[in-house]
Amino acid sequence: YETERRKYAQDLINFDKQFAALFSGKPKTSEYQNGISHEQFLKAFQTFGGFTSGIGVHYAPSAIVNTKHQGCAENLIIGQRMLPQMFIRAADSLPVEIQDLLPADVRYKILVFLGTLDEARLPEVYALAGELDEPTGFLRRYSPDGQISVVFDIVAIAVGNKNNFNFMTIPELFRPHWSKVLLDDTDVTGSKGGGAYERFGICPEGVTLVVVRPDGYVGMIAPATALHDVYEYFASFMISHPQ
After folding, report:
1. Which of 23, 57, 88, 194 has the fewest CB neighbours in a 10 Å radius?
2. Residue pLDDT, tens place only, 2-21
């Protein structure tokens, strides 16, 4: 609280004081020039819009906000809320808002951006899954009795065509439930979904991990080639459970 939220709690108090003064003050008229003008109200809404909506909060680097690999997804800001984005569920081609898969249920969400999957890249993906599934991997090390779903919720996001993508080819670790495999594609109407990798600034040629904290804020982003950094991230604040 002291290192993250106290600053924004104080900002909220200051914001409420300013807003209360605007609403309680008399409007500016030709007869009363010292009143509150429309421009003052507009400026206040524009200045504090991000704050009042909750998307303007940006937590500074700390044990639970690691910005080392921000360049892996330059538009998905670490320390801010995960951006809304429509994806296509691979199992039934229905559009899904990523926010609906990120409830505040005390679990860390591990978004595995698999990139463009083909037969040539599947061995790489399976090797990654095998490494993460080891007892020494962070998924099991910090889960009681190795029960990953108690602490972590994994969602796989690939670049693929909904008409021919077989989500069963993805390692089981990355598809804990049939609804947790998403595609960066458009729905049948062409009006929902698509363009997420480009929007977030994620390279589709490799695997990128996005760690979303239980409160919905992005805590860390890292390429699969830097798993040691992800291990160090969780080791800095979580208690291990020996297998």
Report:
1. 23
2. 778 788 778 778 878 887 88
